[in-house]
Amino acid sequence: MSPENEDKDNAVPPAPSTPPVPPAAAPDATPAAPEVPPVAPEGAAPADAGPAAEVPGAAEVPGAAEVPNAAGVGAGATWPPAPPTVPTYSSGGGGGHEWGASYQPPQPSGPAKAKGGLVAAVLAAALLAGGVGGGIGYWAAERNDSDTGTSTTVSASQTPADLKREEGSVADIAAKALPSVVTIDAEGGRGEGGTGTGFVYDKEGHILTNNHVVASAADSGKVSATFSDGKKYDAEVIGRAQGYDVAVLKLKNAKGLTPLPLGDSDKVAVGDSSIAIGAPFGLSNTVTTGIVSAKNRPVSSSDGTGTSKSSYMSALQTDASINPGNSGGPLLDARGAVIGVNSAIQSTSGGGLGTGQAGSIGLGFAIPINQAKNVAEQLIKTGKAVYPMIGASVSTEENTRDGARIPERGVDNSDPVLNGGPADKAGLEPGDLITKLGDRPIDSGPTLISEIWTYQPGDKVDLTYERDGKERTVELILDSKDES
């Protein structure tokens, strides 16, 4: 993601003029307040979001012969098509680059250009503040000449005991969690890469993060993790799950680590407090707060490497501020336990801190920790993850709103129902409309994929579908497929 570099962002604005010093007032006259120079509007309007990416009408889902994806597919199928550029069933503009994006630092086009605009803005603000302060100070001095009263200000106690944070407060939770959160720097073999976040998963030095944070550096690049105290360790990627957007790193020569406690994302309720920790736009150790805004939100994203591979999750939605660079960081509950792995945002188009990447509008999404934990354990043990599947292709169109349809033909003209797979054994056929999985209503292909992946291979689950206007419910035993 290339930053938008415009000359106007690096030009030094003229310093605001210093307000004139008012003339001495007559003994009985009250001096007028000095004029404050007007503050000009900041920057240009954000760029318009581009059109949403075209979504194929019918595509294969998890269980492909080459790579697992959506709902489980037949032989010869490939990974699902590129994901939509906005969250499922969301509206409005918004580029797809916000999804699954680690922070991509801007590339300066000349010496010291990267900081020019910011320094100029700070200098201008300082000059403005100095001018306004001088005028107000003159007016206050004139007032004090005739004021015979004494100051009534009260200083706060500087006793350290008075600065204790209550147990369970945001400050208390942040102080305990920050030492276990790392800022990840990933650099690919050709210099591409970015900044993301991760957290200590266990005492053996494993770090849990998003696949898209380290995808560019997983094969021939370099990965490092820096703690809040400044200690930096080299790391290796020991396993990645593209479909789940989960990755596990192993720190080299790290000792005395404190894992973050893991919560139970199934017991999270809408309205619960949430705390996000990460490195938004490269600003390490940033803490933001909010609530859990929704559960089971179907979300699809890409790994940012330019491939058509997609990931799906039945996400926790939060309004805690999450931005590029927060990816892979923990979403905590009011006890300080991890309930999710921050992974994606919905955002309007625009830049932030000199980059072309858009920022938070209060719509952040996290992989539920129960699912992330299951995937992490598989990656630690075998380096690979397995995916549950029903063995049928479904359309990935999101505007159907009535269910997930099994198409007449699968990808590359393959059979849409895998011979001998769970769907075949349950009697499903091309044209069937899947409307419910377990107790979850299904309104699209991506929703079905997201829900299937909350289960484990071998789980029994009821599936409801419509055929010729009649509703039927069958029991499936989910099959499995790895990512190789």
Number of helices: 7
How much of the sequence is in beta strands?
A: 25-35%
Report the helical percentage: 10-25%
Described by the principal axes of the CA atoms, the overall outline is: globular
What would you note in describing this structure?
The structure is a single chain. The longest helix has 30 residues, at 116-145. 45% of the residues are buried. The strands form 4 sheets. A 6-stranded antiparallel barrel has the order 1-2-3-6-5-4. It has helices at 7-10, 116-145, 170-177, 211-214, 369-382, 422-425, 445-452, and strands at 181-187, 193-200, 206-209, 222-227, 232-241, 246-251, 273-278, 286-302, 310-318, 330-332, 338-345, 364-368, 386-389, 404-405, 433-437, 440-441, 460-467, 470-477, 479-482. With 484 residues, it is an alpha+beta fold.
Q: Which structural traits does this protein have?
A:
484 residues, alpha+beta, 6-stranded antiparallel beta barrel, 6-stranded antiparallel barrel, 7 helices, 19 strands, 25% strand, globular, disordered N terminus
Describe the protein's topology:
Layout: H1 7-10, H2 116-145, H3 170-177, E1 181-187, E2 193-200, E3 206-209, H4 211-214, E4 222-227, E5 232-241, E6 246-251, E7 273-278, E8 286-302, E9 310-318, E10 330-332, E11 338-345, E12 364-368, H5 369-382, E13 386-389, E14 404-405, H6 422-425, E15 433-437, E16 440-441, H7 445-452, E17 460-467, E18 470-477, E19 479-482
Antiparallel strand pairs: 1-2, 1-4, 2-3, 3-6, 4-5, 5-6, 7-8, 7-10, 8-9, 9-12, 10-11, 11-12, 13-19, 14-15, 15-16, 15-17, 17-18
Could you give a quick summary of the protein structure above?
This protein has helices at residues 7-10, 116-145, 170-177, 211-214, 369-382, 422-425, 445-452; strands at 181-187, 193-200, 206-209, 222-227, 232-241, 246-251, 273-278, 286-302, 310-318, 330-332, 338-345, 364-368, 386-389, 404-405, 433-437, 440-441, 460-467, 470-477, 479-482. It is α+β, with helices and mostly antiparallel strands.
